[in-house]
Amino acid sequence: MSHAVVTGNNNDDDASSRRYHASKYDIWALGITVVIGGQYISWNAGLAAGVMANAIALGLTGTGYLCLTLSLAETVSALPFAGGAYGLSRVSMGYFCGFLVGCCETLQYIIYTSSSVLVLTDMLVVCLFPGITYFAIKPLLWILIYATILALHLRGHHLFWRTNALLAAVSLAVLVVYIGGSLPTVHFSQYAGGPAWQFRGGGAAFLRHLPLTAWFFVGIESLNTVSNMVARPKHIIPFGQVACMLTLLVTSASVFFVAVSLPPGVASLATDLVVLNAGFTTMLSIPAAAATALSIPATFATIYGFVFSYSSILASMAASKLLPSHLAFHHPTYQSHPVAAAAGSALGLVFCAVTTAASPNIQLYNVCMTFGFLANVAQCWNFLYFSIRFKHVPRTFHSPLGVGGAVVAIAVSLVQLVALLGFQE
């Protein structure tokens, strides 16, 4: 386990002193940046299975991610790896399986980013070209989105973390305004559909829509990839990761309750492009296009955060000779991985193009989460292996759920995989 942290040539003391070291707040904010956009979009399609069914699914998925987060926090408090899941997987499962786990996690983040880019593109079209269908402009918007984010990542260092803090603050503030400002018009019994919308379609519908609740939490596990940018990762990352997960649990429950309790009702909400639109149009008396614009920062933030995550993993795998060495290039001044970020983004553009051309035959999100839940199982297995074989390694954080929490997270991930592989149309 020699590749605990991927670093550049930081032997120069002056360069090291100028390097930005992320704080607990930065880690918390990065988690918000990566995840919070998923609470704005797409999860509402799961309401087709019923409001109560979706609430149960949200509770199940949230429990799984909480258990996963606590397990990962303990792992990183003892053995921080900048490369995410693949580092320990090489030890617990073998070199080849570790490589496969790394590929699963990387593909999950690249594909999830592509899915978010497609949604952000639709938002921009709604805001900038209402009522007009310009198919030719969408690829240009994809390129513009990726290019903007790559430019911010290329400079890395202080700019990356300042931008991250700003995106997290804006994204969370918009959500707080939505929740607080909508409370006067919340009426669950009137707008949540009543008995007819509690459970719809039986168990098959529940499982078909279960993976959509992962939109609320996916990406929280990626915080382990930031170890090389933190001065004391064993202390700072667990705190930021757990604090972020608790924040997400509160916001997810609040957003879900408020969203299903607003006019015009759950039947309309289930097909909306942007979940928050109904609340903002009612609260601020603005058109739908203007309301959609309020969700753009959080969706952009999600893409911004995931590009960092997959570039870190690609660079770490390349440094371990699992991928071409060029991907491991670490900018000595900006502390970024520009080659890895560009390569992952280029593949993301391919996924955008293929999905658009093949739609609706390819469900990008389902492919993404299949890789994601496989990686989650591997990470929990790593925790179990670590707990048994490396009891002697000191930790700064202990999961209050211990081995049982990891087992629960594995069970939830396996149920999600069954839903993805056996119950999708």
Automatic annotation (TrEMBL):
<feature type="transmembrane region" description="Helical">
    <location>
        <begin position="206"/>
        <end position="224"/>
    </location>
</feature>
<feature type="transmembrane region" description="Helical">
    <location>
        <begin position="132"/>
        <end position="154"/>
    </location>
</feature>
<keyword id="KW-0812">Transmembrane</keyword>
<feature type="transmembrane region" description="Helical">
    <location>
        <begin position="166"/>
        <end position="186"/>
    </location>
</feature>
<feature type="transmembrane region" description="Helical">
    <location>
        <begin position="93"/>
        <end position="112"/>
    </location>
</feature>
<dbReference type="InterPro" id="IPR002293">
    <property type="entry name" value="AA/rel_permease1"/>
</dbReference>
<feature type="transmembrane region" description="Helical">
    <location>
        <begin position="274"/>
        <end position="294"/>
    </location>
</feature>
<feature type="transmembrane region" description="Helical">
    <location>
        <begin position="25"/>
        <end position="43"/>
    </location>
</feature>
<protein>
    <submittedName>
        <fullName>Aste57867_18746 protein</fullName>
    </submittedName>
</protein>
<feature type="transmembrane region" description="Helical">
    <location>
        <begin position="400"/>
        <end position="423"/>
    </location>
</feature>
<feature type="transmembrane region" description="Helical">
    <location>
        <begin position="364"/>
        <end position="388"/>
    </location>
</feature>
<feature type="transmembrane region" description="Helical">
    <location>
        <begin position="301"/>
        <end position="319"/>
    </location>
</feature>
<keyword id="KW-1003">Cell membrane</keyword>
<dbReference type="InterPro" id="IPR050367">
    <property type="entry name" value="APC_superfamily"/>
</dbReference>
<feature type="transmembrane region" description="Helical">
    <location>
        <begin position="236"/>
        <end position="262"/>
    </location>
</feature>
<keyword id="KW-1133">Transmembrane helix</keyword>
<feature type="transmembrane region" description="Helical">
    <location>
        <begin position="55"/>
        <end position="81"/>
    </location>
</feature>
<dbReference type="GO" id="GO:0022857">
    <property type="term" value="F:transmembrane transporter activity"/>
</dbReference>
<feature type="transmembrane region" description="Helical">
    <location>
        <begin position="339"/>
        <end position="357"/>
    </location>
</feature>
<dbReference type="Pfam" id="PF13520">
    <property type="entry name" value="AA_permease_2"/>
</dbReference>
<dbReference type="GO" id="GO:0005886">
    <property type="term" value="C:plasma membrane"/>
</dbReference>
<keyword id="KW-0472">Membrane</keyword>
